[in-house]
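User: quick one, sequence for these tokens?
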């Protein structure tokens, strides 16, 4: 099969209910009056990566389990309206969902409903193999049931990336993803020693590149045993919500990588896309487009060293 897709995104489809709260942590009270409303919209990590890649001009295909429920209809409509190819495997437990509490400073606390995944759920191997072989790259979300698909993906020889999110470096659930991917993204939020974890991933697994994002402090890039500091990029507008910033970073980085750019340039693309995402309310889906990204990158920014 020819490569008709630039990136296959595996997993991470779902629906979030977004609540803007007066503070985080939220002190206990019998009730709160939510002035900005409570909104439910399609979009979790895989959706956001797919949207970001598509906005940057990459041919993107998304594969995941969805339920025959209103939440699944929201996810289907999001992809249909944005023109992103979506292959759906029936999910008997229903569509994945979460509640996101967003503070005034843009910080987020997510409550994931893990009851929507059953241990016996699987992607058909033939579907995974066919879609992967028709792609230049596969980005794998850490949602169930992506882990059982990793051996099939590795057999295809297609390069893989994954995002471990706020992994603490020890939780065994994340290890299959960390060790199978060629490009590994993660957050420093739960890491006592980010460099040690990054080097451990590279030493034990297949990763050629490990990127640890650190929010307003920028990011760290490990490649060829060299640790590179990636400065934060100034957001183009006030920060309102950090939800999806890591997904935007991954999309920007992968856009650079698939365009043949040097790693430092890829990291800059990711930083610019991530900074933009922080200026977009969680109730909207407005990823940075290719022209805007390239224009923003052309502006003076701190040198990556």
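Assistant:
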């Amino acid at each position: 099969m020819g490569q008709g897709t630039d990136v296959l995104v595996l997993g991470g489809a779902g629906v979030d209910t977004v609540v803007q709260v007066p503070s985080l942590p939220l002190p206990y009270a019998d009730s709160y009056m939510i002035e900005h409303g409570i909104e439910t919209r399609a979009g979790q990590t895989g959706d956001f990566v797919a949207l970001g890649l598509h906005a940057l001009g990459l041919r993107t295909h998304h594969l995941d389990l969805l339920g025959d429920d209103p939440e699944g209809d929201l996810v289907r409509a999001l992809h249909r309206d944005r023109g992103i190819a979506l292959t759906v495997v029936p999910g008997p437990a229903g569509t994945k969902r979460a509640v996101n509490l967003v503070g005034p400073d843009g910080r987020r606390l997510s409550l994931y409903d893990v009851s929507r995944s059953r241990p016996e759920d699987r992607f058909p191997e033939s579907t995974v193999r066919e879609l992967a072989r028709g792609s230049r790259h596969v980005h794998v979300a850490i949602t169930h049931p992506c882990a059982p698909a990793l051996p099939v993906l590795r057999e295809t020889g297609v390069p893989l990336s994954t995002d471990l999110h706020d992994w603490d470096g020890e939780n065994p659930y994340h290890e299959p993803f960390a060790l199978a991917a060629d490009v590994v993204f993660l957050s420093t939020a739960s890491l006592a020693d980010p460099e040690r974890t990054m080097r451990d991933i590279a030493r034990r697994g297949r990763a050629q590149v490990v990127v640890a994002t650190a929010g307003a402090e920028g990011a760290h890039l490990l490649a060829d045993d060299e640790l590179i500091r990636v400065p934060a990029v100034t957001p183009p507008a006030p920060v309102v919500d950090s939800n999806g910033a890591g997904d935007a970073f991954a999309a920007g980085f992968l856009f650079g990588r698939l365009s043949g750019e040097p790693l430092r340039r890829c990291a800059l693309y990711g930083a610019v896309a991530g900074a933009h995402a922080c200026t977009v309310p969680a109730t909207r889906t407005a990823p940075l487009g290719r022209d805007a990204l390239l224009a923003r990158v052309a502006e003076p920014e701190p040198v990556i060293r």
